[in-house]
Amino acid sequence: MTIRNWFIFFIKALVIGGVVTGIAGLFIRWEDAFAPYVATGEYGEFAGSLLWFMFLGMTMSVISQMGFFAYLTIHQFGVNIFKSLTLWNWVQLLIIAVVIFDLIRFRFMPLANTQGQLLLYLGLLAVLLISGLVVAYFKAKWTKKHAFISALFFMIVITTLEWLPVLMVNEKDVDRYVALLLFPLLAVNAYQLLKLPKYNAKSEVDRLKLVERRRLRALKTKEKL
Length: 225
Known about the structure:
single chain; mainly alpha; about 90% helix; flat
């Protein structure tokens, strides 16, 4: 990918993270972070709170992008180590199963002190799994069928690793942040996974155009000589 296309890719992912977190924050944190300012007419404070959530989402977007490029390296290592994409896919499926078990047994169950919290975490798990399946389906449909498992691995395992720091916090209102921060990670990861081929193809076109411009400049220089 060229620097120009990477920069566009980065900025769009940053905006997606900010917008998604801002919108999610309006729903998830309305009562404590927004409603008091609306009730008292402090719209400047309301805007400041919204901008803070958007900044938080942009931060999560950067984490997501780091995870994405780390995964590209891990995926290549996995294929090289196991010498077969089929075998590597089976390993990825095993890791997905382990991560889901870990989420339920060691993350959600200790955090869920009430039945309502347990339902919330199971709902978030469903969002994670359904999002992963949908994105993996379109990735396989738009590229190659064998990309399904790798896309599913990225959407579930890598998203969980990026989500893990907040899952390890044991605070009173941590469930709100657990819910809030999942959405920007899913949105940015889905964007990166589905749009990367477009930017790679555009970068290849840009390189060919650059080569052609250099060739024409060289021809013009020879003609002047």
